[in-house]
Amino acid sequence: MKFEIKRDRLLDGLNDVMKAVSSKTTIPILTGIKFDLTTAGLYITGSDSDITIQTFIKAEENGEQVINIFENGTIVVQARMFNEIIRKLPTNAVEIEVNGQNRTHIRSGKSEFHLIGLDASDYPLLPDIQDDHQFSIPADLLKSTIRETVFAVSTSESRPVLTGVHWQVKSGELECLATDSHRLARRKVTLQQLPEEEFKVVIPGKSLIELNKVIADSSQPVHIMMTQQQVLFKTEGILFYSRLLEGNYPDTSRLIPSDYNTTITLDGKALLQAIDRASLLAREERNNIVQLTSLGGNIIEISSSSPEVGQVEEEIQATSIEGEEMKISFSAKYMMDALKAFGGHDIKIQFTGAMRPFILNSVHDKAILQLIVPVRTY
Amino acid sequence: MKFEIKRDRLLDGLNDVMKAVSSKTTIPILTGIKFDLTTAGLYITGSDSDITIQTFIKAEENGEQVINIFENGTIVVQARMFNEIIRKLPTNAVEIEVNGQNRTHIRSGKSEFHLIGLDASDYPLLPDIQDDHQFSIPADLLKSTIRETVFAVSTSESRPVLTGVHWQVKSGELECLATDSHRLARRKVTLQQLPEEEFKVVIPGKSLIELNKVIADSSQPVHIMMTQQQVLFKTEGILFYSRLLEGNYPDTSRLIPSDYNTTITLDGKALLQAIDRASLLAREERNNIVQLTSLGGNIIEISSSSPEVGQVEEEIQATSIEGEEMKISFSAKYMMDALKAFGGHDIKIQFTGAMRPFILNSVHDKAILQLIVPVRTY
Predict the structure, then answer these.
(1) Residue ranges of the DNA polymerase III beta sliding clamp C-terminal domain (chains A, B) (predicted)?
(2) A231 and A284 assigned to the same domain
(3) Are residues A322 and A248 in the same domain?
(4) What is the pLDDT of residues B297-351, one digit of tens each?
(5) Domain enclosing residue A158, as ranges
């Protein structure tokens, strides 16, 4: 294998692939990244066995020669070391050559590195994905859908299936839902050309967080393919594979209340900032609890106290308060996470009682639903 | 105590003082900061007992009213909490009021915090500094002098005096010197109006690093006052106190060789970058060693190898190589630290032999000297 490549273009590709490489892997070859040089261009693959990312750098892009190929071939090199070397090379022209015993030479300016590579035939193959359940979604819609749900996955391994986001295609809609049993985030997306048969999968939250870092903000479609064990997200130049979580995702439909005693409509951003301030004191206690109280004249009060440090209270002018008076305590963190999903728009909070889960919606549409279980404080 | 203050001006003051506050202190009141409100303005003090920083915010600055004072007074409040609260307040107008039992009220917009304060009379007094050995130095010269020496202090507590920088006034010069016994950094500064009598002190490296964060880049003078136990750095609006280290600083004058067998003159920046690259492989080994070899034609080679990972070599064109051929091994980290002190100018490296300390100077002047003890590699 021998080729010349522009350093900045190689770094872009490495940057994506490195997100799949973990230094904590128990499979030694996965500390490496695989290069496959073909006549068309260079494939770079990284994996931690849960996530696999492959990028492709075309030899020629828009009439510009990005890679000069002298001899095709494959190699695996230590990922972190290779990435740091490329980052620090003195010139933008890089020559990479592999000869006997996987010796890998990197040349740039007057600098020359000789690395001990590994045999690419020992590197795991890409997951085999049939186009069973295939559909596509614009990149920016996919990214916001992930952002609005993934924070609510469980971080505890006691019920592994809750560490993932439940994706379900049903009645012409994609529904993404996450819950850690203290709060729940749900996002519905209406898509054209969804697969006809219903299906549901659970995608690890960690995979979706990494996916969001790899996908560029754009309206370009991301093609999604599902099998029983794997999901593949495919964009221009990038393949992102994730394993799926096994086990049945719990039925959450009965968690969501259907009738309400109090409805508060207000500016989500003002509420977020007030809770952020109140949580400064709430954080000192272990539970991080703030209290919301409806007062007269469409005013609500956010308050918190810590016996050691002091108290805080703040009034917010709501747009409207309908129904019974309300006094309820909840986790400041869960509330802030939920409010951030609405991006600062006006929101509607619906309560059934101080001990019952309450829900948040945008006043504009019902695409996003956030549910929070309150905390008993007396 | 009761006053109104502009939030951004208060935050600036807090930002400086917080650098002295440690969460690891064993003296509970030092987790707090002290406020002294006088008719002239607000003094804010923070301390970890090694370093004490006091800032002063004038009530009126350039004809603008920064503080509206209703009632003078003093209070100590929990530093980290107070700072975070001020940072997150909803408006730029802040009212602070202390009433019975040190209850401290912070009001801004519709937000109101009530903190449990501490009695300011329990807060340690500022160190008592006489103007014994007083001189001044422009802020930017002070900052570069610190930067060029402080990195060489010892991080080991086995000889505590080596964790400080030795400052000595002698023959009309200020000499600042640090060594961890593997390398040495020395900076000489010629100053007008130095104290007439000679004196020497050892200032903790940690204090000088914090001082450099507090002093603004400018050519304004910093007034320096020394006693046996304390040093005070005084600028417009800021007092920075540090305790001094006890014990005799070793005589280092005999460490510095006086005659040399090989002198290499070259671009310090090119050498720094080559060593940075070579150290990528050197770092994999515990010792982080790179090798410098003089070749013919004014070329030097920087190289390094790691049995597990591979090798690297790079040639650099020197301006001149005088004297004997040289092959020497040293710590990449020490060499990079030393080269950074010269800010990328052309430098001169003088060697006495592969086993003897070597020194670096700027080709322009001798104000900075860096010395490195080589490593035996065979």
Answers:
(1) 254-376
(2) no
(3) no
(4) 999 999 999 888 899 999 999 999 999 999 999 999 999 999 999 987 899 999 9
(5) 133-253
